Amino acid sequence: MPEFRKDIVTGRWVIIATERAKRPTDFALEPVENKSGQNCPFCPGNESKTPPEVLAYRVNGGAPNTPGWKLRVVPNKFPVLGIEGDLNKQGEGLYDKMNGIGAHEVIIETPQHEKTFDMLTEKEIEDVLWAFRDRVLDLKKDKRFKYILIFKNHGSAAGASLEHTHSQLIALPIVPKSVLQEVEGSRNHFANRERCIYCDIIRQEREEGVRVILENKDFVVIAPYAPRFPFETYILPKLHDSCFEEGKSYEYEALASIAKETLVRMTKVLDRPAYNIMIHTSPFGEEINDFYHWHIEIMPRLTKVAGFEWGTGFYINPTPPEEAAKFLREAVV
Amino acid sequence: MPEFRKDIVTGRWVIIATERAKRPTDFALEPVENKSGQNCPFCPGNESKTPPEVLAYRVNGGAPNTPGWKLRVVPNKFPVLGIEGDLNKQGEGLYDKMNGIGAHEVIIETPQHEKTFDMLTEKEIEDVLWAFRDRVLDLKKDKRFKYILIFKNHGSAAGASLEHTHSQLIALPIVPKSVLQEVEGSRNHFANRERCIYCDIIRQEREEGVRVILENKDFVVIAPYAPRFPFETYILPKLHDSCFEEGKSYEYEALASIAKETLVRMTKVLDRPAYNIMIHTSPFGEEINDFYHWHIEIMPRLTKVAGFEWGTGFYINPTPPEEAAKFLREAVV
C-alpha cells in the first residue's frame, strides 16, 4: 500500500509509492564524469576567463588571478542578479516587481579539473566550507542582503553547465519562500513545545535507527521521513546550532569528513549520480536562535519532476527512505 | 538589469534574468517524436496489456477492451495510489502518515501511435476534454476525494515514460498545498476587492497586450507576468468560471481549438519541445465560487531545475514573458 507522509517542518506531503518501489539499479543512471577539460575557465592558467577573484586560498602566496591557488572564488560571469543599484520596488498595474539586486559567486573548489567533489581530500573539502563561511561573513556586511543560499549543481541532470567542480552562492534581498516555510514551521514547533524540531527529529531518528545512514561525533546523516526524491539525504549537526556561518572550527573538520563519506557512498550506490546540494541556514537578522537548526540537503537527480508535482506541490517518491538509508548505510567503499 | 517579479496569486517571486536572455534557439532543444510503436500497451489490439477500461468512446459500438475505440480511459497499471481501503491516519512518533488512497487513471487520446497531441484534430482534442469531464464527474461521487489533478507529461524530459499520447488524472483525499496556495491567494484578493484576481489579470493583460499570445471568443492565452520557466503559458476562460468540469459544452469546442493552436505554435517555435500541461481548478465542495478561476498551465521543459530553485523556491527564468509571448504570437504556422 502506498503511503502519504507529511514533512513535519514544512507540512509538505509526499507519496511513497511502494507499488513502484525502486532499487538503485532500477533508475536510468547516467554516471557523471569530469573529462579532462580544454578551455575550461576554471582551470589554472585561465584566470583571465573569469571576473577577478574575490577570495583565493594559496599555498605559497602568489599574485591574485594567477595560478598557484588551491581554491578560488569569483563573481559569476553570467550573474542572475546584479550587485549595483537599489531595489526600486515598483508596481506595474496589479503586479509587483523590483530590480534584481544580489550577489552571485562561484567557488572553484580545486585546480584539478578531473576530480569530482567526492574525490577531494577531507582537507580540501574543509577548505571549501571555510570559503563558504568567509564569503558569507563578508557579504553579510552588505545590509541589502537578507539571505544567502549556498548550493552545488553536480552533473548536467542537476543543472550544471560546467563540469570542473564548483559551488555557487547567491545573496538575496528577500528571504525566499521555502526558507520562510522551514523557519516558520520550526518557530511554531518551538512555540508549542519549547524544543527545536530538528533536535526532536535527530533524537527520534537516532533511537529508531532505520533512517540513519552514518554519524560521527558532531554530525548525523539521515534519510528524511518524507523525502521528495529517492535517496534524498540530510546532514545535521547533532548539537543545536541555528546557522552555518557561526559554526565552531572543529565542526568544519567533522563536517568535511562526514560529507565526503556520504558522497563517496552515494557515488558507489548510485554509480556517480548527478546531484544538488543546498545549505539550509537561518536568514540574517535572527541567525542565532533556539528554534531553527541549520543542515545540508543532498538530492541525487534520479527521477524527472513531472506534471503531477508541478500541479500539486506533492512529490511521488518510488524509494522508501528506510530502503535508501539501508543501501547507503551498508555500502562497502 | 535582472528583475524580481512576484506572482500575484501565490506570492512566489521569480528572477527574470535579463543578462542571460534566451531566444528559442539558445536552448538545448531535444525534439520529441513518436516513433512507430511496437508492443505499445496503448495501441489498438493490445487492450489486454492495460487494466480493463473505465471509459471508452467508440464510433460504431463494439465490445469493451477490444479495438474500435477512438479514446480510452484505463486505470494506471502502476498506480501511485491505491483505490481500495481507507486513509487510516496515524502518527509515527513525531511524524504523520496515512494510507495512499486515491485513483490514478490514464486517458489514451487516440489509437494512432505516431500522432503527438498537437497533431490531433480539434474534434479529437475536444473528445479528450469531454473524457476529462466524464471521469471527474464520476470520481467526484467518491466522497473520499477532495481534488483531482488532470495533467499531461509529453516527452521524457517532462517525465513521460510512454510515447503514445496520453493524459493522466490523479484523485486525492487531500487538497494539495500548491492548489491551496492559489485558492487562498484568490480568496484574499476577493475579500479585499470583491473581484476575481484572474478576471483582473485578464482585463489588464488584454489592455496591455504585450503578454497576450492569442484569443478567441471564449478563451485567452497569455504568458504570465512572473513565469517560473521560459515560455510558460496559461489558457484562461474569458468569463469567470471557477471549475473545469462544470463548463458549458460550447466552451470545450472553443478550448480544443485554442489549445491546439497554442501547441502547434509552441511546437513550431521550440521545435517539438517536451512539456507538462496541468488543469488548475477548484477543490471539491466549493467548486462553484466567485473568487477562483480555473485555467490551464503549459510548461515547456527547456531548462533544468537546479540547487538554487530547490533551496529557495525562487525560479530563475532566462526568457522574459514579453519576449516569449511575441515569439508565439508572431509564429507562422
Break the fold down into its secondary structure elements and pairings.
The structure is a homodimer of 333-residue chains.
Chain A: E1 3-6, E2 13-16, E3 55-58, E4 69-75, E5 90-92, E6 95-99, E7 103-108, H1 122-139, E8 147-154, E9 166-172, H2 177-193, H3 197-208, E10 212-215, E11 219-222, E12 233-237, H4 249-269, E13 275-280, E14 295-300, H5 307-312, E15 315-317, H6 321-330
Concise overview:
The structure is a homodimer of 333-residue chains. The first copy, chain A, has 333 residues and is α+β, with helices and mostly antiparallel strands.
Model regions low in confidence, pLDDT < 50 over at least 5 residues of chain A: none
The main β sheet of chain A shows up as: 10 strands, antiparallel
- For the secondary structure, the number of strands of chain A is 15
Q: Please, what is the oligomeric state?
A: homodimer
Strand order of the largest sheet of chain A: 3-4-7-9-8-13-14-12-11-10
Work out the strand percent of chain A: 15-25%
Describe what you observe in this structure:
The structure is a homodimer of 333-residue chains. The first copy, chain A, has 333 residues and is an alpha+beta fold. Chain A has one domain (3-21, 37-85, 95-330): HIT-like (HIT family, subunit A, 2-Layer Sandwich), CATH 3.30.428. Helices cover 25% and strands 23% of the residues of chain A. The first copy, chain A, has helices spanning 122-139, 177-193, 197-208, 249-269, 307-312, 321-330; strands at 3-6, 13-16, 55-58, 69-75, 90-92, 95-99, 103-108, 147-154, 166-172, 212-215, 219-222, 233-237, 275-280, 295-300, 315-317. In chain A, strands 3-4-7-9-8-13-14-12-11-10 form a ten-stranded antiparallel β-sheet, with helices on both faces. In chain A, α1 crosses α4. Chain A is globular, with a radius of gyration of 20 Å. The model of chain A has no long low-confidence stretch (mean pLDDT 95). The interface between A and B is large, with 77 and 75 residues. β1 (3-6) of chain A pairs antiparallel with β6 of chain B.
